[in-house]
Q: What sequence folds into this?
């Protein structure tokens, strides 16, 4: 997916983030672990540093949950994201494309409500407090995979 969107790199890669924004993983780490079924952004990888894709677990043909770190589908389909209004014309591939650009130090580094640090689904929410004993269950595996999608290293949980 090609866009005519132009941006400028104004900071060193991976540094000088806005106050309050913490990144848990680099885009390269996320891609190497396996996120988004390997399909996410395969059509715009040329925009980003080649080094990010050296160890990436990708599938150009389809979304393959087995490529995810936890080998489970933890993604909503693209049409769902569009329906919810979570896709912006500047970042037609969604949150991760925005995050990659932000990480590279795109000018302005605006969050525009897109940055998620995973706390709302990481177990710090009260709704997960009673499920700690089921940490091996498929539900928790999908939550942990979803956290990887938001740059939160859930392998440390």
A:
């Amino acid at each position: 997916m090609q866009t005519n969107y132009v941006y400028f790199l104004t900071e060193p890669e991976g540094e000088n983030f806005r106050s309050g924004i913490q990144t848990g993983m680099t885009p390269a780490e996320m891609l190497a672990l396996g996120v988004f079924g390997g399909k996410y952004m395969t059509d715009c990888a040329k925009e980003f540093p080649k080094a990010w894709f050296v160890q990436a677990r990708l599938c150009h043909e389809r979304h393959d949950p087995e490529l995810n770190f936890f080998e489970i589908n933890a993604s909503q389909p693209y049409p769902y994201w569009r329906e919810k209004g979570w896709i912006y014309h500047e970042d037609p591939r969604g949150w991760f494309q925005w995050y990659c650009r932000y990480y590279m130090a795109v000018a302005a580094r605006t969050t525009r409500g897109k940055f998620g640090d995973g706390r709302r689904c990481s177990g710090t929410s009260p709704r997960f407090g009673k499920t700690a004993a089921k940490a091996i269950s498929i539900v928790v595996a999908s939550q942990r995979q979803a956290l990887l999608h938001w740059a939160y290293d859930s392998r440390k949980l």
Residues 113-136 have pLDDT under 50 and may be disordered. The radius of gyration is 16 Å. Residues 123 and 130 are 10 Å apart (CA to CA). Helices lie at 27-33, 78-83, 95-103, 138-149.
